[in-house]
Amino acid sequence: MPEFTSTLGNEPGNSSLLHRMETIYEEVVRLSEILPRTHPTEERPILIGSLLENAGYLLRRPQALASVKKNSTVVDKILFTLSEEDLRSWFENASLTGLKATLKQAVENAFEAGLSEQKEERERFVNLAMEGLAKRERFAGVLRSLARWEQQHGPLASDLHHRHQVLQAEINKVDTALRSSTLSLEFVDEERRAERDLLEESLREGAWWYSATSENNDFSAMVLGASPTTLARSSRVIEVLQTTKTPPQRHISSEELWSFDLGLLNEEQRAWMHRHSLSCKECRQALMMLSEGEEAIEEALHLPEESLRKHRKQGEVFDHPLFRVQLLFSGKKHRLWLEEKREGVLSQASLTNGSPLRRIASGYELQLSSRPQRSQRLRVTLTTGEEILIPLG
Amino acid sequence: MAIHQELSDNELFDEVLRQRARGEDPGDLLGTLCERWRRPAGVVIQRIQASYRVEAPDDEPEFFHDAVQRLLERGLDQYRGVSELPGKSASPKTFFLRIVKHLVIDRYRQKRELLDPGSTEEDEASPYASHEAAVAIDRDHRQASRQDAQELYWKAFQRLQAEHPSEAAAWDVYHHQDVEDHNECARILSITVANSYKRISRAQAYLRRYLLELIEGENA
Q1: Residue of B nearest to A328 (CA)
Q2: pLDDT tens profile A88-116
Q3: Neighbouring C-beta atoms of residue B147, cutoff 10 Å
Q4: Which residues contact B77 (CB under 8 A, 6 or more apart)?
Q5: Angstroms from B32 CA to nearest CA on chain A
Q6: Which DSSP letter does residue A364 get?
Q7: What is the spatial distance between Cα B185 and Cα B169, in angstroms, rounded to a whole number?
Q8: Can you list the pairs that A309-315 forms with residues at least 24 positions away whose Cβ atoms lie under 8 Å?
Q9: Cβ neighbour number for residue A301 with a 10 Å cutoff
């Protein structure tokens, strides 16, 4: 959708909203006057979009329009002058690009408005939030104008009908994606209510950008620190919010442990680790393990090869230059693991009783409920075609 | 391959790094090299297992395999060949064994968390250690809901780190690192005390928002 030269301002207060109705009405009339003189250039689809948007805005607010003594039949007549070709040219340029990001940013600005301590700062964020929400309202206006055009001219041609459906589906997708993250709009409820109340009553609930959560004002109170016990609807909410008063203990992370071991932490970080380990047994033990492990590394580096060989080869059943067979026991289950020493050297593996082994990243595996019988063999086929039988007993 | 068997660990490791720099897959060479380190790795694994009082010899091959993966995925980029610690060897073999050491520690820490979520020394000295079933059920229930709340909290904190890193850093120092003093927090972060107050306050508001959105998202 082309970026419209919007006349939808966001001045707070009812009188300015009504003044805006007059301004938009005049804009619709102005557009209807210049459109016949505009050639079907690049500018024309923009003007058509602007007309659809502004006319839709007025049609969605018939009572407000009447209150400024303007007649919606004039708007109807203007829409009637648009041809199917006009709509086609608009549809060809229509796009929802940026709508989702704009609405997300509107939510962020609404939240910042809630956190603002200065009046001017709050006003700035409120205006930014409402500008973002107005973009969603413009699409609603366009859809309203198209519906009114169809009432006058009959259904859209099949290609336009299809484009209309696609546009509607995309809008629905954006709406669905944002629904659960619009709680922060509560911070601009006053301004949203003013906008919502101008809408025709039957349209208010559907205009979530102006109506959702706007009667339910405990989100902002909970965010700003009101006691959730008096406001929250469930004990779960109370417990979850409590974590921001007494945050859970953070343990030393794997990355911090690694950096500590390599001497990459600064003094503050090391000091915290020390303080934390005084009260946390688990992390204290992890730090001790670093020293234990370091001693083990030293030992392993200096042990002669013979001594290393004496270390247990638990679970190893068969060692081939290209693969290794291991029978591992965990809990009550046995796991037969055929580990490739080089990726892709094996093409197939099964037991001689017919049970196939499952392909995994490092080779093949099979879960067994008991240890294999002595007579059982593992049949391994290499990618070269060579077949090897390995006793498992 | 035969030529590779003739090379020393360091020469082979250098070749791995060269292959990687050329955009080639060093998997084969690295496999050959790590095979040489399998048994030393076993020594490290067994020592840490013994320190954790874990008797699980079957874990050893899996730990070794995962350590090779970790070296391939992360370690090769981190290896500098120079030890940051005086007196500590920085050979490729030592570097790999250090990866093994950390991997085993990580795994046993994770297992402990799963078995005993949120355990602290305070809990161990808890006066609630009653044998009555009702008390036990109630305690389980409280522990489950506390765990649920903490899981949501860490998700919210991760989002804070991604979207508002300055606030997250202040929150981390103030609360997670138990500083709980704005003067000290400001000093550590090199910001003003007023800024420390502001960041913590904003962090708390954002965390509360994210938590409520997470709950809202579950209900949607």
Answers
A1: B58
A2: 989 988 888 889 999 999 999 999 999 99
A3: 13
A4: none
A5: 8
A6: E
A7: 10
A8: A309/B39, A311/B39, A311/B42, A311/B43, A311/B46, A312/B42, A312/B46, A312/B57, A314/B57, A314/B58, A314/B60, A315/B57, A315/B58, A315/B60, A315/B61
A9: 14
Fill in the amino acid letter for A37.
R
Residue A213, sorted as left (phi over 0), alpha (psi -120 to 50) or beta, turns out to be left
- Find chain B residues with C-beta within 8 A of A286's C-beta: 105, 109
What value does the mean pLDDT of chain B take?
81
Q: Which helix (H) or strand (E) holds A212?
A: none
Q: Where are the alpha helices (DSSP H) in A245-350?
A: 254-261, 267-279, 281-302, 305-310
Cβ within 8 Å of residue A205, ≥6 positions away: A211
Question: Per residue in A316-326, pLDDT tens?
Answer: 667 787 888 87
Rounded Cα distance, A225 and A338, in Å: 57
pTM, two decimals, is 0.65
Nearest CB to B207 within list A244, A280, A335 = A244
Which residue from A minimizes the CA distance to B220?
Answer: A180
Cα separation of A308 and A85, whole Å?
Answer: 84
pLDDT at A138 over 90: yes
